[in-house]
Amino acid sequence: xxxxxxxxxxxxxxxxxxxxxxxxxxxxxxxxxxxxxxxxxxxxxxxxxxxxxxxxxxxxxxxxxxxxxxxxxxxxxxxxxxxxxxxxxxxxxxxxxxxxxxxxxxxxxxxxxxxxxxxxxxxxxxxxxxxxxxxxxxxxxxxxxxxxxxxxxxxxxxxxxxxxxxxxxxxxx
Length: 173
Description:
Blueprint: H1 2-25, H2 27-39, E1 55-60, E2 64-67, E3 78-84, E4 92-94, E5 107-109, E6 116-119, E7 126-128, E8 142-147
């Protein structure tokens, strides 16, 4: 239907932007994602640069504890596209990053509208602080996160190589 087509067109366009940004700053991660896209092509967004990614999460006033995305593809990258912000009450946090040896661990930042964050989310701990007044009817922060999960680097979403009833990377069990 029309709504699904519009959503898909928007996400595919954002995947192209995310892929172009990644290609401009990390040739190593780009090569890793492009290589896995050859084998798992049916798990990818269409397009030249968007095809590096297998998944997209759209987050509204998202809040997470410090974590690593351990199931992301090794050597790849996650790309966060901020579509609204900055919020006066929410921060993107890298709890283990130090600016210098004397700095208290951790940095945080309000991410402005149009900001793109590229990171190895598998290796770098990251978090988002909670909005003071979150709300799905009128979110203050909207972002799209593009990534490739290890289970989506194989043909047919990994099906046929896993005895479980859903496509996955069996090493996760």
